[in-house]
Amino acid sequence: MTQFLNTLQSALLWLFEPLYFKLTEYMQGAGLMPGVVFGTGITPGGAVGQELSLITRRAFVPKLVVQIYNNSPTMASLLSGAQPAYGGVSSISVPVQGAPFVTGQWSGYDGAFNQPSDAQGAFLFEANLKLFIVPIPFLGMEGILQLDHAIIPKIEAKMNDAGNVVMDVFSTALFNNTTNLQAMIGFPGAIDDGTNMVTYGNINRTQNVWWQSKVYAATGNPTRQALLQYIAGTAKNGGEKPTFGVCGFGTWALLAQDYQGQEQYVITPGTGFDGSGDGPRSGFDALMVCGVPVYADQYCPEGIVYLQNSNYINLYVHVMGSFAFTGFESTISNFQLGYVGALVCILELANVKPKASTRISGFNSLTL
Question: What global pTM score does this model have?
Fold first, then answer.
């Protein structure tokens, strides 16, 4: 019986081999065989190449190179300095003063003064934490197929991707969201004069002008002289100089051009440009204007510069929901062999002194 089966297998292989190679040649020409490159370099084409592809392992590089995400230094900075939150109704409640509690007056030799009145000066910034969930499935047969044969364990790739998805969504909301109240409110709402968000933190900006940020409409290129004016305006409006600025890479690169023409190189006599191990320096990671570093962020829309004060803008992250993983639970109750887990983040951005920050829009930017 064994000899008969071997003979039958050989006969079928002899009969269908020409048809197989014709089919694979057609699929290759039609682009239907991804992952196999024939006829280039040391790999032959035609039937020999097809045969080698059937009996030779792929030379995989055991790395999964991510192509679809950007980095956000602003989001990373906010997360590194995040404040803890512990729940409760209005999980972020910060008392803020928007009016004087008392008034003073000039007096004479007799030291007389008017009867004081008890004035309201305190208001309450209130915000709720926002929940973000990344469900992570793990099918039972996925584990069976990859057991001891995984080049890239798919579950590890999913876990790594969950963190990347969180950062991508958070960074996008940070520079864009004002309308989705279930999501984190970003800079356009936190640094605003009422144009994007009239009520922020349960305080009305129209009725309370002290709750408004300075918002400028700029024209032309971002320059040191232009930013100096807006930094001075921020300090005048909020009483403090901003601690840093952030803008898109095209806007930042155009601002950098205002520096490049002023650079000078001092070379030690008797040496050349290659005399130093680092060589002559040109350009900087942060562009300093009046002592305020301006950084580039890929998620920031072009033409906009945010001048911020990190003393008052913070992320609040719940202590039980800071990139917490629920663990995997079986899906058998749903008549499926597998598991599902979730990555959970509970947080919100809070700006408790909007007038200490500024938004400038309308700048030109480079097309990169």
Answer: 0.83
